[in-house]
Every structure is written in C-alpha cells, then in structure tokens.
Prior knowledge:
By secondary structure, the chain is an all-alpha fold. The protein has helices spanning 2-8, 15-23, 26-33, 38-51, 65-72, 77-91, 100-106, 121-129, 133-141, 146-153, 160-179, 184-191, 195-217, 223-238, 245-248, 255-263, 269-273, 277-283, 289-321. It has three domains: 1-78, Arc Repressor Mutant, subunit A; 94-240, no CATH class; 245-321, DNA polymerase, domain 1. The termini are far apart. This is Putative dna polymerase theta.
Amino acid sequence: MLLLSVIGLGVASTEAAAAEVLDSSLLALQLRQEGTDVRQVLAESLGRLRALGLLKGGSVLETSSLGRAAFKGCVDPARAQHLHAELWSSLEALSLRCHLHLLHVVAPRGTGAPPQLRIEPSQYYRHYMELGTEEQRAAQSLGIDEALVTRMAGGRALKAEERSLLERFQLTLQLNDLWHQRSVWDVAAKFGQPRGQVQALLASAAAFASALAHFCQELPELWAYRALLPDFAERLSHCASMELLPLLELPCVRKGRARQLHQAGLRSVRDVACTDPRDLMHLLAPIPFRVSQQVVSAAKLLLLKKAEDLQEEAEEVLVGMV
C-alpha cells in the first residue's frame, strides 16, 4: 500500500525515485536487519502491482484507474480487482426500492466479518420472513430466497459459498434494523450478539461505505455507486443515533456535544436557540461561557436562515397563485 500511495500521489514516477523513498522507510530498515535485498523486494512489489492491474505498463510508474481507486479508497491492493468485479456484478441486479441491497454491499465479508458469528436456523428463518416484500425481492436478487433459508432452517447440508452468503446476509439484517432506527441494544438482543459486536459492525460498515465512495470515484463504470454511496455512508454513520441528527445541523456541534445536549433535554435547534447561554453552560458543564454563547448563537442563526428560506418559499407559492 505504501508503494502504491507513493506512486499514486506522484512522489515517485520512476523505479529509482521509488527506491529512494523506500530506502528512507522503516520497512527498508527492517528488511536490511533481516538481510533482505531492498531493491529485489521493490522489483517484486512493482511486478505484483502490475500483475494486479494497479499500475500501467512502461518505464514511467503511473497508477491505473483501478490503482488510483485502491489507494484513494484505502483498499488492500490484493483485494482491489475482486472488489471491482463484485461491485460490477452487483450492478446487474442492484435493487434500489429499499436500502437492503446497498447495506449488503457494505456489510463486512471474509476476514472483516465479526468473529464467532452465531446463526440460529429457526431465528434466521423468522427474521427473513419478517422482511417486507421489497426487501425479500432485494434478498432474492442477492441469491438468498426462501428455499435456501428453509433448507438451512431444516438442517440440510449447505455448500461453503451458501453458508458464507447466509452469514454475510445476517450482518445485512442487523444493519437493516439499525438503519430503521432500532437501537444497538434491541438489535443485539434480537440476534443474540454482544452489543459491542453490533456497534463494531455498524462502525465497520460505515467506514467501508465511505471507503467505497472514494474507491468508486475513480471508476466511471461504477457511476451508480458514485451517486449513491456518499450520502448513504453519511446516513449510515448516524443511523444508531438518529435522534441526534437535528442537533448535528449546528456547525459547532459534533456527536459528543449533540449527545450532551440531547441528554440535557434540548432535542432540537429551537430548544438550543431558546436557551440562555448561562443555563447552557451549567447544563453542559464544564464548558466555558464563550463556547455556550457560540452554540446558542449558531442555533439562532440556523433558525433565522430556515425562517428566511420558508418565507421565500411562501412568497413564491403566493405569487404563483395570483
């Protein structure tokens, strides 16, 4: 990843320049201590990157579009081709009538999946049947239909790829509940998983969604994901705390401060704007009076802007009626 980033950022455009950068790295120091030839490692690494389609051919070192996508999305170079193929294949039957398909795309897979994932067949079947019509259609487009789930619930033998798909879809079901504003506690209890594991799943999926958004920016053929993933990733990162979203509109408020405001009984921007800065200072202690003034002022400005926007819309409607 170091070598790909160095080339992608334009720091090194020749093998000699790449060797100079590598010589000054901790990796080179470790290789020398092991008695390994740094130049040989460099040549082998460049060969692997070319074989993976991440570098263009020729004497000048230049990343391909897939290579740029890999380093901008912080995707393991060894996984880049497989990930691209998976995303491209998913486009053929991408279901957008609900969010289930996109949630499956960003659900951890392989080594990124939580350890000791437990599947209880009868509960799995019930969770599947609780899905809405459009969600079941999305599941079918992923290769998970009632027949497969019934076979698993009945204790029938499954192929390795079928079991892997069902395990990943169980993570998708957990993300789907979180997306629909169920709390981490409720989801953990429903699926019999530790709360920390469910929270880690959400954080991992949100981070991967953001990485995929950057990955797809460099690949024109994945234009659909480029349009969908940025907003989707942002919403996913907040879906375990939807009650905080109104407060997160304030420019000077982050998630921790928004949670403090919510716990203090201030549930909306209007509540904050109507609060005396001195009272807010005591509610959120310890914070300086200057900070509480900034929070209240920001809330008032945001309310004023919203009021002006609504007034403009009302005037446009009235003009249209005349």
